[in-house]
Amino acid sequence: MSKFILFEIRYWLKKPMLYIFFLFFALFAFGFLDFDFITIGAGKGTTHANAPLVIQILYGAMSTLGLIAITAFFNATATRDYTSGMDQIVFASPIKKIHFFFGKFFGAFLVAILSYTGIALAALISPHMPWVDATHYGPFSWQANVYGFLLFSVFNTLFGGAIIYAFAIYFRNPVLSYIAAFGIMTLNVISAILIRDIENQRWAMLIDPLGQHAFNIFTRYWSPAQRNTGYVGLSSGLFLVNRLLWGSIGIAILFWIYWTFDFTQARSRRPKKKDRLMSAMQLSDARTAVPHIEKMPAVIPVRRPAAAWLHQFAFELKSITRNNAFIILTSIGIILIIIGLSFSTGNFGEKNLPVTYSVAELIGANLWIFIMAFIVFYSGYVVFREKEVKLDEIVDATPISNGYVVTTKLAAVLTSVAIIQLAGLFLGLFYQLFNGFTRFEIGLYIRLFAIDLLSFAFMLVAAYLIQLLVNNKYIGYFVIVAFLIANNFLWQAMRIESNMVRFGKLPTITYSDMNGFGPFVPGFIGFGLYWSLFCALLVLAIIGMNLRGKENGLRSKVARLALYLKGHLALPVVLLALFLICGGWLFYNTKILNTYISAKEKDRQQADYEKKYKKDEALPLPFTTALNYTIDLFPAKRSLHVHIEWWVKNVHPTPITILPFNMPDKASNDTLTVPGAVLTAKDLPLRYRTYTLQKPLQPGDSIRIAYTADFINRGIENEVSFTQITSNGSFLHDNDILPVIGYSRQEELTNTLDRRKYDLPRRERLARLSRNCTDTCNTSYINNSATWVDLTTTISTSDNQIAIAPGSLIRQWHEKGRNYYTYQLHHKALNFFSFIAAEYLVKKDSIDHVAIEIYYDRHHPYNVDRMIAAVKKSLHYYTTNFGPYYQQECRIIEFPRYAGFAQSFPGTMPYSESIGFISDLRDTSTLDYVTYVVSHEMGHQWWAHQVIGPAMQGSESFSEGLAQYSALMVMKKEYGPQKMSRFLKYELDNYLRGRAQEKEYENPLMRTEGQSYIHYSKASLVYYYLQEMIGEQQLDAILKKIVTQYAYTNPPFPTAFNIVDQLKAGTPDSLSYLISDMFENITLFNNSVDTVTVTKIADHRFQVKMKLLCEKIRCDSLGNEHNVPMDDYIDVGIFERNHQDGSLLGNSLLTRRIKIHGDTTLTFIVPKWPYQVGVDPYHYLIDKITEDNMKIAF
Amino acid sequence: MELKIDNINKTYPNGVKALAGVSLTIPTGMYGLLGPNGAGKSTLMRIIATLQEPNSGSITLGELNVLKDKDKVRQMLGYLPQEFGVYPKTSAIDLLNYLALLKGIHDPANRKDIVSAALQKVNLYEWRKKAVSSFSGGMRQRFGIAQCLLGNPRLIIVDEPTAGLDPGERNRFYNLLSEIGESVIVILSTHIVQDVRELCANMAIINNGRVLFAGTPDNGLDLIRNKVWARQVDKAELESYKQRYKVLSNKLVGGRPLIHIYSDEAPDTSFRAAENTLEDVFFAKINEVL
User: Largest Cα–Cα distance in chain B?
Assistant: First the structure.
């Protein structure tokens, strides 16, 4: 056997393929490790660029790409004897089957895994490159490399190689082994779809044949500290199981094929019936007499170019689709779609109604990589088809023009792709029908798929050209993939963002039910035309260079091209001219008429801003006291005109002389009138103006500033940048249209590494939490130059739209074909406003003198009633338990899905069309996401709009955190503790994942600074836990006190200290450790059930003995953990079986809250047979592994 | 119309010099290109069939510049390569239809007629709906001829067409070819001397890329008339005979070599006059005796 192994190795060592793959992997790994434009497993932050975990993720990612290498090596090795025709000679010689079969396999195996060592090489040298920031790298971890190599490269090569090899040897047809490779890739994609919902994660971990998703799940909670030092070795739970499982499957298949493989039946694998028919035909033919010879009919010299083209196209198409391979591949595509549709849930397991755009986008996304692989594969197929069957000489000698040959082949592949998309369309329709949704919009499916098809067409042309130039199918595949990847990443690396440069790049399009393709149409047409013209030129080049005959060197290709151009000059010249005109026009539109700056340029601008103007941060700023907006919207033109009157007052003890302003982006014809002031500095690129008051503004005095501006969208942009106004669905924030006064800290660069690059000092995310906060506490974190303001708005729009601003509607009229509205706030509010207009239907209701209005798009009436009900429920709970509501209306307003959030303004809550409005709530077992979000935004009417903290650590923990809490309390009434715990599991997952991806340092809850995984997710868990421990009523009473004390307060604004003090005051001493653990520190638990024994005792009762392992852990900001003594009240519970829903607990036989100090054994007696036993059954505590809290008793 | 080949040279990128200064004039009718394996015949055929470029030289077909006007040549060309394969699972009539389409026969009814006639001419009509990939060797060659005939070509090139055919099939094949060859240029390349003798009015002998003889078979025979002598010898003596005489060929008859030698006069009485065959001309040229 060793002879075979050695032969294989020697064979491959002489071929370029091994070295190409080695280089490929090495370069790729190097690119990932040394350049920060692609990040995997870590941001540019505290996790090292070459952290052991990152290295292992790299091995995982490469082994997916490595499927190509595996297919190449094992396929070639397996079929070499057959394809060269040597098989009969080889098999007639005295070799043992076992040596032959396994020898070749191991030979190929050793060679294939050798190519992965390129990654180790890259890992070794990447930190030492002169251009890297050395602090971002850690030491070389040989364990990470060894285990990464073993667990990914070795196992995946074993599994993938076994499959490919087995298929290729058994079926003697390389095509089937390609399909097997497709199948592996599909399983990988399916596993990616499944892991999105944490309920499915265990299955997803097992289904993933290449292991990277299983790996990601296994390590999803690893903090930066753990990522920098830890690595995944052999004790890796379900991940290891996955590896062993797929490794065994590979070996099993290999052995199975070995038993069934037979040398002797090598040739005649055709079924016997066909054999008989064939020989009958041949015999009969031999006996036939010499025929009567007649003259051939003359050729009628008519030219029917169109019909001929169609016939040839039909032939090419049939050759693709009548193949078993195509049918199998389409089936795989269909399976992918079905799985993608079935598991399309959101972050919290919530489902949306299957509106056409979301179904089409889902299908498109799931099919994307599959179709790209399809195109790559079939580009090779059509280019080399004739040569591979050896019909090329006959075909090439016919007078058929290259134009026909190339265009029919391209059209055939593209049509096959369209067939798969069509299958997707039918599946989509079926899925919609199956879910009881009948607004089908077939035209929209077609348009969305056609947009994808255009991109696919571009890629197909590129692939065809590459195959033609490389003239070798395998290497061609490889080069195409490399090109696609480079085209994706290289431009980003060079920070070039122009869609004119990255091949085939079309500007992003977001379809909205409200607005259709709206603002994205001009860009799509412009760039679509541009790249289509370019690809047309490429097609002409392909036609010119197309191989006819045997001269396939580069020089003859160029010569052929020159000859072709000489003979057909008109079309290329015309296309080139059109292309240049189109390019010129696009250049003018995207770089002169409209400009954009690259991300790198944006960073530099931010650095400049800080360097030049940080000194102005110390300037005293006048506070806004009242605003009067006049806004005229022109939706059809996508422009607007604003005029704003702005009263500001000097609230400081010193006079104010200097007033800096940050002007809005995209404003034109703007004038800023500051009475008694002159413009002393104007920085156009940074949009910073400085005014000097000739008569300084004295303490207590006010002035009225006026600002007028137009916001106009013209022509085509590289990417649409101002979706705030569209033809149906405009959503403006005040800082979109009003200058911001004073130095704006938000403009600074936040990433630590970026700051170092530009020599900027260390930056705090927010001011440190402190009790003595002087100036910082004089404003809220919403606005550093206002407290509470009055607002009047007059807003107008076209006559088929309604416009809304915060406040009560005090006047409404119609003039010159436009609708006018005047709104005024009933009570002063935070200086944080939005202005919205669209074609709406309105549903109105009221509760306790508060008007409830839902403004929705006519396509989305589904959940309007539920929203009204949710407003009523939350309003009722909050006014009862927190305090009064001071505005006169609650409005929920739909806006297009260009943004995917909901926000809360005084009395006005805009909602994205993709949240809530299309939620599918028919399945009552899923979370009522609509009520949840409505309640959260309503909660903000107290938490933020009445009680708000300063720009300091911890302020968001009570404005966002308590909004979360409020929503949870509204939900709790509906759902009960078990369903709440299932929901909170998602929040726990969000928190743990968020802290694993923290780029700087994690903070305790009361010091959170812009860390949404803390102020949303952790806060939910903490406040819910707190109300469980001290009682909902008690917590609500504390909150009521907070509202009474701090609502609409004058400065100083309450800090997290003030809030936590109140919480401490309301918490009994025995539970005060909760505040310390949950708010002041970062605390985690590790609770699990070790063993459970149940013994039956007298009178049908049962004694349950449970051994619990409990640990309490404190973490530092980087995630380093240490155990602390435990003295906590924790629930333990014994439950019956739940026969209706196996995923929930059954009836409680016993629940106790007891003080636990660590590992402990407890004994209880219950009246019925217990099913599940354990600790913290409702998951109140933050525990990294929730599955081991409860155990099933046997 | 005649095909004029003028000083064609072809060296492959790996250094092999396939054709060196080849010049031929090929009139209408059957033309045999005779040479051993590796002589350069296929290369020459491919160059004429517009599939390969020579390094230098020119070829004209009537008024047409073959090397420059490839498209025009292809419109009147029928080419049967030495080795060809077919798309799997495609029937004879479908594949012929496709090739007829590629050859520019656009009218569907016309195309149907032509394909039908071609199938009948090569006696494959009965099997037209069967997959070509299931044909026997002979049937496949006939299919090759059928596709060659599509579009009434004026220049037909068949490269080693009878390799692998049994004698019956070879016969039928020749009948077909000779009937075609009456009004078009048919270039037939082969290493079987018999084929040329039977079919071709004109011929050339090629070896190592050079033309060793061009003319009619009779011209060739004239060169050796009465100059070939035969004798049967012992295996042990073979070497000494090779040194003493110009041995053209040796064949085993009943286990002992029968040699043909070239000599102006009878060497001695042990030799008898051999029948003048084209084979001797061939060997004489190949072995550079003449």
Answer: 70
CA–CA distance, A1062 with A1060 (Å, rounded to integer) = 5
Contact with chain A for residue B112, Cβ under 8 A: no
A1075, A1038 in Cβ contact below 8 A? Answer: no
Q: Which of A637, A444, A640 is nearest to A522 (CA)?
A: A637
Residues B190 and B65 in one domain: yes
Mean pLDDT score across all residues of chain A: 88
B149's enclosing H/E stretch is helix B137-149
Q: Is A1036 exposed, middle or buried (0-12, 13-18, 19+ CB in 10 A)?
A: buried
**pLDDT beyond 60 at A818:** yes
Q: Closest partner residue to A397 among B49, B53, B121, by Cβ?
A: B49
> Is the same domain home to B145 and B159?
no
Beta carbons of A640 and A634 less than 8 angstroms apart: yes
CA angle A149, A151, A154 (to 5 degrees): 60
**C-alpha span between A635 and A1160 (Å, rounded):** 68
Residues B157, B139: one domain? no
Mean pLDDT of A535-551: 91
In chain B, the residue whose alpha carbon lies closest to the alpha carbon of A396 is B51
Interface membership of A393 toward B (CB under 8 Å): yes
Classify the phi-psi angles of B40: left when phi > 0, otherwise alpha if psi is within -120 to 50, otherwise beta: left
Q: Domain range holding B277?
A: 224-286
For B114, residues 6+ apart whose C-beta sits below 8 A from its C-beta are A296, A297, A299, B100, B105, B150, B151
Residue of B nearest to A547 (CA): B51
Q: Is A280 part of the contact surface with chain B (CB cutoff 8 Å)?
A: no
Distance of CA A492 to the CA centre of its chain: 17
Copy the structure tokens of residue B67. Answer: 């090397």
Residues B41 and B181 in one domain: yes
Element (H, E) at B214: strand B210-215
pLDDT digits 0-9 by tens, A125-165: 888 887 777 777 888 888 888 988 999 999 999 999 998 88
Pairwise CA distance, residues A791 & A352, whole Å: 36
Shared domain check, B158 and B61 = yes
Residue bearing tokens 């991806």: A997
- Window B:22-51, CB contacts with A under 8 Å: 46, 49-51
> Is the confidence at residue A290, as pLDDT, over 60?
no
Q: Which of residues 676-735 of A touch B (CB under 8 A)?
A: none
Determine which of B50, B102, B141, B142 to mutate to test the interface with A (most A C-beta atoms within 10 Å): B102
Q: Are residues B67 and B159 in the same domain?
A: yes
Q: For an interface test with B, which of A393, A554, A556 has the most B Cβ atoms less than 10 Å from its Cβ?
A: A393
| Higher local confidence (pLDDT), B191 or A306 | A306
Q: Give the phi and the psi of residue B91 in degrees, each rounded to 5.
A: -75, 160
B200 and B266 inside one domain: no
Q: How far apart are CA A687 and CA A612, in angstroms?
A: 12
For residue B221, give how far its alpha carbon lies from the nearest alpha carbon of chain A (Å).
32
Q: Which residues of A touch B70 (CB under 8 A)?
A: 548
Beta carbons within 10 angstroms of residue B141's beta carbon: 24
What gap in Å lies between CA A232 and CA A224, rounded to an integer? 14
The confidence band for A267, taking pLDDT boundaries of 50, 70 and 90, is: very low
CB A894 within 8 A of CB A514: yes
Residues 6+ apart with CB under 8 A from A406: A464, A539, A542, A543, A546
The domain spanning residue B57 has which CATH number?
Answer: 3.40.50.300
User: A234: burial class by Cβ within 10 Å (0-12, 13-18, 19+)?
Assistant: exposed
Amino acid symbol at A208: D
Q: How many structural domains comprise chain B?
A: 3
B7 with B117, same domain: the answer is no
